Amino acid sequence: MTVRRPEEYLEAIKVRHKAEIYVMGQEVKDVTTNPFLKPSVMAFKATYDAAWDEDTKELARVWSPFINEEVNRFNHIHRSPEDLAAKVKLLRKISHKIGACFQRCVGFDALNTLWIMTNIMAQKGKTEPKERFVEYLKTVQKKDLALAGAMTDAKGIRTLKPSQQPNKDAYVRVKEVRSDGIIVSGAKANITGVAASEEIVALPTRAMGPEDQDYAVAFAVPTDTEGIKIVVGRQLNDARRFENGEIDGLPYYYNHEGLVIFDDVFVPMERVFLLRDWEYTSQLVEVFASFHRQGYGGCKAGLGDIIIGATYNLAKQIGIEKASHVQDKLNEEIFLTETMYAAGIAASLNAVQPCPNCWWVNPMQANVTKHLVTRFPSQITQLAIDVAGGILGTAPSEWDLKNPKLKELLAKYLQGIEGFTAEDRLRMVRLVENVSLGVAFMIESVHGAGSPAAQRIMFSRLYDLNYAEEVAKRLAGMKNNAKFSTNAEPWRPSETEKLVKEVPTKRQEQKSK
Ligand code: SF4
């Protein structure tokens, strides 16, 4: 059972007894058959398929020292820079099969974040959170559970800290501490894949001060828990899923996001990993955000490949694939896609080790990866639109194509080069529309794992401007204090590396050799 079959995952999430899940105002009990959620469930399932498909199982299966068995990579704790690179590669490959976000990486990153943070807390003398986390991790790995990571709070008034908010539940908080657990209240917003998950791993969304300690809480609960209410968000073209079509709505795979309301939810103490530990929240946010930003170099590059392939095919369908301006646009799409991927791989192979047995991405390069992703998908999309032509916004529906009175006429007027049918043209146009203009490539690329400003804050924290200035002053012949470091990069340590500075980081180890 350790590497679970996809069908077992579907069976496990089929019926909800306690949690309430709402889609467009209606409560949904079976998420596997609901027309809105089914594409998202199938996309989540692809992470289970990956452990069995011949082309992905090498990447998707990995040995876990925690339970001494093979596990699905999505529940694995990274043990090397190569493990981190394998994550990026696996994400690129799964994107090829789904054309959307497959949603499981947020929980994956939450697990790795808690592993690092509870290790750091243990080094500082607080050992209980790590003990609880390791027991939880073993359960997750043995059962191959489907996790959703829940980070972003409702946030209320953005200029106010959690404890200053007029709505005390604007951030998820500890409302009561009992001997056997805690009561939590509040809501997490934009939670990817949550209705298709079995467990929610909740983390604080921002750095907290002592006055915010009730909001400094990290925990895990089964999704099907009393008091959990999930309101699934709407998406572009979502009503097409109710049409029972097979072309227009990319009906089989899609992601969803939801508002998760914790209405006085009880969390047993063995599932609580941060409890009023406000002093670790800044680092926790940094670790999680960097993990997820690195992953975008894989999944968004995979979506880029789909758009490149579709652009090429649409050009062929109308006979312009050899035109120099089309080849130039394809090369630009390739350059943009491979740059995102290269950054994600660099962030993996230049990993840092904030504690023994902990592997974290390179924070600078992970943030660069995500910042590229905030820009490049829209550029790739623009090039695809350019080549595809106005039909991308004006194509008739599949129902027109299936109407006996229109079928032949549309076949005549939509066809270009012989060998491609009108249906081929419509299918490819819809693919570009659904993938490139959908949530995963356009909106998630900007705001997922933190909005663009969040990466720029990280650049200014991590890049040592003073060092670069001294280097420049020296070459300009000005008075300077240039002292060359052995590091090639003018980078400062991250908050996390500073917190553990008495424990040698990988960078420091390399430096001392
Ligand atoms: Fe995974 Fe990418 Fe979706 Fe994040 S956006 S959950 S990294 S597929």
UniProtKB/TrEMBL annotation:
One of its GO terms (molecular function) is oxidoreductase activity, acting on the CH-CH group of donors. Pfam families: HpaB, HpaB_N. Residues 282-477 form the HpaB/PvcC/4-BUDH C-terminal domain. It comes from Candidatus Aramenus sulfurataquae. This is 4-hydroxybutyryl-CoA dehydratase. Residues 483-513 are annotated as: Disordered. Residues 7-274 form the HpaB/PvcC/4-BUDH N-terminal domain. Residues 492-513 have a biased composition (Basic and acidic residues). The lineage of its organism: Archaea, Thermoproteota, Thermoprotei, Sulfolobales, Sulfolobaceae. Keywords: FAD, Flavoprotein, Oxidoreductase. InterPro entries: Acyl-CoA_Oxase/DH_mid-dom_sf, AcylCo_DH-like_C, AcylCoA_DH/oxidase_NM_dom_sf, HpaB/PvcC/4-BUDH, HpaB/PvcC/4-BUDH_C, HpaB/PvcC/4-BUDH_N. It comes from the Archaea.
